[in-house]
Amino acid sequence: MKWRFLCAVIAVLLGMCAPGALPRAEAAISLEKCTLCHGKPEFRKILVDGKIRELFVTADSLKGSVHAKKTCVDCHFDIGEIPHRERPRRIACTHCHYKGNAEGAPQSDGYLAYIDSVHGKAIARGNVKAPLCQDCHGSHAILKAKNEESAVSQKKVAETCGHCHIEIYAQYKTSIHGVAVAKGIREAPSCTGCHGEHKIYGHLDPKSTVYATHVAEQCSTCHGSISIMGKFGIETEQVETYKESFHGVASQFGSRTVANCASCHGTHDIRPQDDPLSSVNPKNVPETCGKCHPGANPNFAVGKMHIDAKKKEAGVVYYVASFFKYLTICTMLALIVHILLDMYGRTKRLRGEK
Amino acid sequence: MSVESRKSASVVRMSPMFRVQHGLLMLTLLVLALTGFALMYHDNWLARLLIRLEGGVLFRGFIHCTAAVILMAQMVFHAYYMLFTREGKRELKDFLLGIRDFADFGQAIRFNLGAASEYPRIGKYGYKEKFQYWGATIGTFLISITGVILWAETTTMSLLPKVVLDITLIIHGYQGLLAFVILLFWHVYNEHLHPSVFPMNRAWLTGNVDAEWLRQEHPLEYEKLKQEGVL
């Protein structure tokens, strides 16, 4: 009798616990099950080409990331049995991250922009090397972009892009912008500062922010801003003077071959003028101008390039322009006065004749 | 002579040769002005429209340079014609500036202001025509020089400091503007609004002017033609 009672109590207790406790137990088991193999530090696979794929994952892998509360199968949802026989498929972030999702995942349409981008199109064409979300944002240790440690933070994104774009990263790292970002200057552009984040297009695509006729506008978002440039003692008039120059006017009217900011100053390798490696260093000016003007010589470097004839700083150019302005005004006035006088005089003359 | 017969008589003022030169000059200057000012005032909506009509900013440059070459060729031909042909030499003699012209100019002003009793007696070309002619000639010559400097930019940038090119560009633009407004105002007044020719002096099309107009506006030429028996 005593044994029966005890069994009944246990059964009732189990029954009460079951609906709430069982799934949690299952999830916990799931993680534990995964780490049975993946929790061993030496758990890795040697691929056909000799590369080693580290497969070591522990319960700490997600700790601190935006997905800290998720478990393995939340993303690796194609794993149905453990141990799994096949390599799990690449993660599709859109499983949760779409507008109107019920998971409470950040509702971004970055993915839509990505699909149309140069990376998204490369994926669609079947390029397995092209990046998916996780290639830039990280796989397990995903942090918010605002977090400095995030793979896509202003400070770290260049390194992330550099995983594939190695040579460009090397150029950028020593450029004025790369050095500034490394120093922790928040205003300095990293890759995404010029190329955009999800909407990255090839520079020959007219939609690109760095398409030939968009370059000046893109550079001017910072270089035309007194509030940004003022902090670093950099002039903002370069943008205006460029727009007024032959190059700038031709660019505004759609010429793709005319020089834009990057044609002279470089793209990823922009350096200050006094740097001997700068493309606008007087020593390198003949070569830089010579790209479009064959026969350019050291004389091309003589004198200031960006001048505004409307400002006194332009010196003699300003005074010549002012002289002509007043000459034209005075000539017009003299002409009009003469015309009026002549009409008056002629009437008088004809009256005399009659 | 009765008033009727005076009015019917007409005198050749522009030979076909000069009418063709005048027409071509007018055409090239208009094309140069339209393409040039479109670039100079490219921020303006009208300039934007013009540049689009001119086939984009690069084709605009092509049109401008083509018109400039025609203008310069015309300038060379005109110099040859004025210096080495019989008609040209005769016209050049009439066009030479003398102290007389400045005196006429002064007297005209004094008369208009009421300080002189007589208006100067003008020959075939008075100070108005001569100032205009020599101004346009010198202006065309100068603007051609600055234009060539800007056109051959790689060569000139190799030889001159950039500031010279900056100044050249300023001079080229403003001189073009100055020449254009002077030609415009002067023509609008002298050839259109002036009461003796209103609404238009048709000599540039027909080559002829009324003898009566000549008698009023160019009395010395009128008398000379009378003496020669042309009238």
Written account of the structure:
The complex is a heterodimer of chains A (354) and B (231). Chain A is mostly helical and 354 residues long. Chain A has a domain of 101 residues. Chain A contains 16 helices and two strands. Chain A has a two-stranded antiparallel ribbon. In chain A, α10 runs antiparallel to α12. The radius of gyration of chain A is 34 Å and the shape is elongated. Chain B is mainly α and 231 residues long. Chain B folds into two domains: 81 residues, no CATH class; 99 residues. Chain B has twelve helices and two strands, in the order αβαααααααααβαα. In chain B, strands 1-2 form a two-stranded antiparallel ribbon. The longest helix of chain B is centred in the last third of the chain and has 32 residues. Chain B is elongated and about 60 Å long. Chain B starts with a helix and ends with a helix. The N terminus of chain B is likely disordered. Chains A and B meet through α13 and α16 of A and α4, α6, α8 and α9 of B.
Short description:
The complex is a heterodimer of chains A (354) and B (231). With 354 residues, chain A is mainly alpha-helical.
Number of helices of chain A: 16
Largest beta sheet of chain A, briefly?
2 strands, antiparallel
How many beta-strand elements of chain A? Answer: 2
Give the N-to-C terminal Cα separation of chain B: 11 Å
Residue-averaged pLDDT of chain A: 87
Helix content of chain A: 40-55%
**Physical arrangement of strands within the biggest beta sheet of chain B:** 1-2
Based on CA inertia axes, which overall geometry of chain A fits? elongated
- The level of helicity of chain B is over 70%
Task: Please give the alpha-carbon distance between the first and last residues of chain A.
Answer: 152 Å
